[in-house]
Amino acid sequence: MAARRDGAPRRRRLRRRRFRCAHPRSIGERPVSDTDLIVRIAARGDGVTADGRHVPLSAPGDRLLSGGGLAKGPHHVDPPCRHFPECGGCQLQQLSDEAFADYVRDRVAGALTGQGLTAQEITPPHISPPRTRRRASLRALKLGKRNVQFGFSSQGSHRMIDLQQCEILEPRLFALVAPLRALFARMLPDRQPGEADLTLVEEGVDVVLTGLAAKSLAETEMLLDFAQQNRLARLMLIEDDAPLTLWEPDPATVRFGDIPVAFPPRAFLQATRDGEAALVEEVRHALGDAKMVADLFAGLGTFALSLANDVPGRKVYAAEAARDLVLALQSGGNRLPGRIFPEHRDLFRRPLTPKELDRFDAVILDPPRAGARDQVEQLAASQTPLIVYVSCNPASFARDAATLVQGGYAIERVKPVGQFRWSTHVELVATFRRVT
Ligand SMILES: C[S@@+](CC[C@H](N)C(=O)[O-])C[C@H]1O[C@@H](n2cnc3c(N)ncnc32)[C@H](O)[C@@H]1O
């Protein structure tokens, strides 16, 4: 049809195109009004309509229909994994890449708004690609002689999905799923649960098994064959809470910058390599040429060791409560003489005081999910010019951020990080500068 100058045919074409976007719906269902439009995704992953109703497994742009169904909008995609949503490993595979990135950003911005705070800048989020997760805990359940279910445990339930496909695990971790299922089938007592903690380290996959015992020579040999055939970096059993190393041809290590660090079993490691790189890069950007730096909740030294060499003469004090992590960090730090100063310290019980904090040009902190209320109160009372807060929980971060802002800091920049792809688990790096 020839285009008309009054624009009517164009409007009709647009209307038709929009209609085709919606998926087929049952007879008698029709969109009711704009209040039925899904406008955002809530923290726990439900879509929320303009009038505040929660709709599981929906995407922004979807519409609730009068019969209770859902007309899918342009951001509602087919989940890439056959186990979604029952598996529990992912919550948001129905979102387009754009909608997932918006969700990650909005979680951070929303948490700040909830505390009445604004950041001068919120950067575009970093989102980890599929199949990059380098650590996972999988559960096994033996139901019959050769019948073992092995996978993530379904969210909020004891149901298990027997994992045949996974779009988040790094391929070297996923390659172990079938061999581990077979191992559990042979060795797990009937009706008993087992667990496998997998971490990709420099030497291959580090596997820690719970629920299995090596009571006889035959069982020990079976486990050693498994480790050798699958070229594991290390195989450990947890028996009565005590770890037993069965196989570790070379010491298991991780690397921060060019510093190798011994990897204690089940130690904390950022979930993806690219996510870790994004966090380190953002902290590096914030630190600038700061010389005296404190890294609080330092873990194995992800930040301390990656950043110590950036600036001539930089010294990094690193505090961490887990003894095995501090020891590993210390031996890694020995490769940078005079640069790294680790301390075994419980920062909940004994946070750094303002007097201690005032020695530093910059303080990095990366606390557990609960946040770091007591340490942040001390920071708010200090004169530290720069604070770089790495968080795995936007809600506790925003509470701590409010304390820092009350203490005279401004939120200069926030980078949201979605390294748990398709999950509701969101991380961030925030830069605070003292302004008063
Ligand atoms: C989110 S991890 C961050 C680790 C490290 N920054 C990294 O990126 O690998 C939090 C760390 O805080 C440590 N931690 C937990 N409670 C602590 C406390 N009360 N005092 C000091 N460190 C603590 C944990 O052992 C863990 O290593």
Automatic annotation (TrEMBL):
The active site is at 392, 392 (nucleophile). InterPro entries: MeTrfase_TrmA_AS (IPR030390), SAM-dependent_MTases_sf (IPR029063), U5_MeTrfase_fam (IPR010280). The keyword S-adenosyl-L-methionine applies. Pfam families: tRNA_U5-meth_tr. S-adenosyl-L-methionine binds at residues 270, 297, 320, 366. Keywords: Methyltransferase, S-adenosyl-L-methionine, Transferase. The keyword S-adenosyl-L-methionine applies. GO terms for biological process: rRNA base methylation. GO terms for molecular function: rRNA (uridine-C5-)-methyltransferase activity. Belongs to the class I-like SAM-binding methyltransferase superfamily. RNA M5U methyltransferase family. This is Class I SAM-dependent RNA methyltransferase. It comes from Sphingobium nicotianae. The lineage of its organism: Bacteria, Pseudomonadati, Pseudomonadota, Alphaproteobacteria, Sphingomonadales.
